[in-house]
Design brief:
The protein is an alpha+beta fold and about 280 residues long. Helices cover about 30% and strands about 30% of the residues. β1 and β2 form a beta hairpin. α1 packs antiparallel against α2 and α3 packs antiparallel against α6. The longest helix has 20 residues. It is globular and about 50 Å long. It starts with a helix and ends with a helix. The chain binds 2,6-di-O-phosphono-beta-D-fructofuranose.
Length: about 280
């Protein structure tokens, strides 16, 4: 596992360079979900694939930017699903973006995720590693990642990050979001999943939601590359991650690019979501 962490650290320095100096324009390609890929997405993907191909403990990899799983070492132990540069369209407006990695054993399912790592590229570069030991944050200082703190969510937070197109929200979802604002929650949503979820983790709690909507009943965020890695991190930090009804790590994945409605937060807010959604199964 240390080899994987070292590879991610090294790749992150290269990706930071690509973000700072690279071309933010669109490529001519679309990824499997139909998003037009930016040149930055493709360049970051190349860096990560190259790094993982050199590690003997890696069995298979799959990128959000690619159609298929890539076999690396038959005898390897770990399977890695990653989103090389989530929120890449925000580079243009100089907001934070990030990379997300889910590390799995046996197969790419929520039940088999065993660690997750994300890297935030903002005014600072930070990496958060979640595994059996809990959740730890590192920051680039003097050219290397240094340990900064453990991350633990409070029982209740103050931030509300409601994603997706509001016009397409189901009425009960809108009422739940409004109730949180009426309790004094503050809006914090940049449109970058990594910094938005990082903010809630660092500030101790709150709710990030990307629900099913009338236009996208299964939500937008991809299970393997986005939802499961952050679900694992939130659970290890003492919070919860659900699809509205149950632990999102228990859901079935039929295809590597499947999406799922998702809610990440501290216990108080997630219990509010469960109470609301239980009547709308
Ligand atoms: P993006 O499509 O810009 O890469 O992964 C998808 C994502 O960004 C997340 O980072 C972000 O949380 C979400 O989409 C934002 O979507 P909405 O604008 O629909 O809320």
């Amino acid at each position: 596992m240390q080899d994987i962490i070292d590879a991610i650290k090294k790749a992150s320095f290269e990706i930071q360079d690509i973000i700072q100096k690279g071309d933010t324009s669109k490529s001519d390609n679309q990824n499997s979900t139909g998003d037009t890929q930016l040149k930055l997405d493709i360049q970051s993907d190349v860096v990560i694939e190259k790094a993982f191909k050199q590690i003997s403990s890696v069995k298979k990899i799959v990128s959000e930017e690619q159609e298929n799983i890539i076999d690396i070492n038959e005898d390897g132990k770990y399977l890695i699903a990653y989103d090389p540069l989530d929120g890449s369209s925000l580079v243009d407006v100089n907001l934070s973006v990030g990379s997300i990695y889910g590390i799995y054993e046996n197969d790419f399912t929520g039940a088999n995720i065993i660690a997750s790592i994300y890297v935030v590229f903002g005014p600072r570069v930070e990496m958060v590693i979640a595994n059996n030991d809990g959740v730890k944050m590192y920051r680039v200082l003097d050219g290397e990642f240094k340990y900064i703190q453990d991350i633990k969510l409070n029982e209740k937070g103050k931030l509300n990050a409601p994603g997706s197109t509001q016009q397409c929200w189901y009425p009960y979802h809108k009422e739940m979001i409004d109730r949180l604002f009426n309790e004094g929650y503050r809006l914090r949503y940049s449109g970058g999943m990594v910094p938005d979820l990082h903010q809630i983790l660092i500030k101790g709690g709150g709710l990030f939601s990307y629900p099913g909507t009338t236009d996208l009943p299964k939500g937008k965020l991809r299970q393997l590359f986005e939802v499961f890695p952050f679900a694992y991190t939130y659970k290890m930090a003492g919070g919860q991650a659900i699809n509205g009804f149950e632990d999102v790590l228990n859901i079935t994945t039929e295809h590597i690019h499947d999406t799922s409605p998702c809610f990440f937060g501290s216990n108080y807010e997630i219990n509010k979501v469960l109470e609301t959604y239980k009547n709308h199964a």
